[in-house]
Amino acid sequence: MTSPDLRSQLASLTTEAFRPDLADIDRLPTLDIARLMNGEDAGVPAAVAAQLPRIAAAIDAVAARMANGGRLIYAGAGTAGRLGVLDASECPPTFNTDPAQVVGLIAGGPSAMVTSVEGAEDSEELARQDLDALKLTAGDTVVGISASGRTPYAIGAVEHARAQGALTIGLACNEHSALAAAAEHGIEVVVGPELITGSTRLKAGTAQKIVLNMISTITMIRLGKTYGNLMVDVRASNDKLRARSRRIVALATGAGDEEIERALAASGGEVKSAILALLADVDGPTAARLLEESGGHLRAALAHAPR
């Protein structure tokens, strides 16, 4: 049974607000419901845009920490936690990051990805335990994610991380949230009441996904994981990605198929090294050395390559 205080808190949240104008939505034709839902979603990018300066400041801080070996750790419960795990899990194949470099924590552990774990989101202590298990350091970043901005697990993660000297970000979808207030960088993307009352997997979830995409993607750009808009650190782990690797080298260099195959073979399949070898006309080992000396930044390596 929920307490009157909690019911009162939820009633005050924009994400939990009831829309009387949608009270008969279940009686509408399917196409009309789809149009309504699409119209609701159309407002999400504008809500994100209002927070872009805060998002950019947070990303610059994350990139600075990660450039020195820090990790990016997401922490949330329910939908918010799943979105963090999803974003983290997509970094290794996209940017060839170590799986331990970007981590998603969900209240209740891996099983909570598919089933609800009773009471997990209400435990700040569980968040502290999960971060301690990762051996959190002051060089890391913790992003607490919660649509309501009041989820104890997300707040507990941010408060514990901040006490350890780690960088903290609080991502919520309500103004004046406890989560944003607890974090060094508070981001509140206010998308308004949901089509289905309180179902924050809808607009709030979409907004959180957009912001998490920005945090991870732009951080990786800052870390030199791309060359222009090409995924030069892509991990070629299947046929599709192997074909994409060859296409990326072709787009970056204009080289022919035979040249590309030779360069990739000489670089052990590393796209970035192959591009550098072709553009700078150096061998594979030289390309690898130049990249290492340039911190993995292809443009910097090109600038320092022998002429």
Characterization of the model:
- It contains 14 helices and 5 strands.
- It has a 5-stranded parallel beta sheet with strand order 2-1-3-4-5, sandwiched between helices.
- Helix content is 52%, strand content 8%.
- The chain is α/β, with parallel strands linked by helices and 307 residues long.
- The chain is globular, with a radius of gyration of 22 Å.
Protein traits:
5-stranded parallel sheet; 307 residues; 52% helix; globular; alpha/beta
Poorly predicted regions: none
Number of strands: 5
Q: How would you describe the shape? A: globular
The strand line-up of the biggest sheet is: 2-1-3-4-5
For the terminal residues, how far apart are their CA atoms?
73 Å
- Please bin the fraction of helical residues: 40-55%
Class by alpha and beta content = alpha/beta
Oligomer: single chain
**What summary fits the major beta sheet?**
5 strands, parallel
Which strand-content bin applies to the residues?
5-15%
Which helices and strands occur, and which strands form pairs?
Elements: H1 4-11, H2 30-41, H3 44-49, H4 52-67, E1 72-76, H5 78-95, E2 102-106, H6 124-133, E3 141-145, H7 152-163, E4 167-172, H8 178-182, E5 185-188, H9 203-222, H10 239-253, H11 257-266, H12 271-280, H13 284-293, H14 298-304
Short description:
By secondary structure, the chain is α/β, with parallel strands linked by helices.
